[in-house]
Amino acid sequence: MENPKVQEILEKQVLTVAKAVEEKIDEEIAAMDRLDSDDLDAIRERRLQQMKKMAEKRSRWIGLGHGEYSEIPAEKDFFSIVKASERVVCHFYRENWPCKVMDKHLSILAKQHMETRFVKIHAEKSPFLAERLKIVVLPTLALIKNAKVDDYVVGFDELGGTDEFATEDLEERLGKAQVIFSEGESSLHASKSGAQTKRSVRQSSNADSSDSD
Questions:
Q1: Which of 19, 100, 148, 197 pairs with 3 at a CA distance of 20 to 30 A?
Q2: Which domain holds residue 76?
Q3: In three state form, how does the secondary structure of 39-59 look?
């Protein structure tokens, strides 16, 4: 049987929390009541301007190739791409299993984070860039802000040391580097699918697994 004193304490705590919530709601209602039509019009206008600005941003981002994960066709194109977008995640890859794992995660994040350009470039066909940016381990992600490489994600060491990492693990790492918005407020999909981000991209019967090195 439950201790009556413990029950009494719990009831008091619940009542205290309920009262605090009720007071907060009352304050918000009172604040709304104090707003006149001019205040409401100003709030509405400010919100419309914010929405217009975001729509213009999205339109510009789409024009630059944001929202999709694409390949840089030639080494010389790298510079114009990173100068055009404020935030770029560039995957230096080769044709092997680890890089294909990274591809699948980046394809998901490119759609979720419209604010950032996601691209890939073949490291072995880009010797100048690979040497200049000291790319040794593949896959390597160059995290670029304002046309300058700000950080790197090298291999899977920071993602649990395994190719079984979840998309959200990579998302968290990119968010810490501030190369994506952590809340994804500028993404095409404001609400993420938990099943999609949690799912590992490993497929047990993938013939490419033998190509890893």
A1: 19
A2: 50-177
A3: HHHHHHHHHHHHHHHHHHHHH
What is the rounded radius of gyration, in angstroms, for the C-alpha atoms of the chain?
A: 24
Which three-class secondary structure string do you get for the chain?
A: CCCHHHHHHHHHHHHHHHHHHHHHHHHHHHHHHHCCHHHHHHHHHHHHHHHHHHHHHHHHHHHCCCCCEEECCCCCHHHHHHHHCCEEEEEEECCCHHHHHHHHHHHHHHHHCCCCEEEEEEHHHCHHHHHHCCCCCCCEEEEEECCEEEEEEECCHHHCCCCCCCHHHHHHHHHHCCCCCCCCCCCCCCCCCHHHHHCCCCCCCCHHHHHCC
CATH number (domain holding residue 95): 3.40.30.10
- The model's pLDDT over 73-99, given as tens digits with 9 standing for 90+, comes to 999 999 999 999 999 999 999 999 999
Q: Does the pTM of the predicted model rise above 0.85?
A: no
In a domain, 84, yes or no: yes
Contact 173, 150 (CB under 8 A): no
Number of domains, the chain: 1
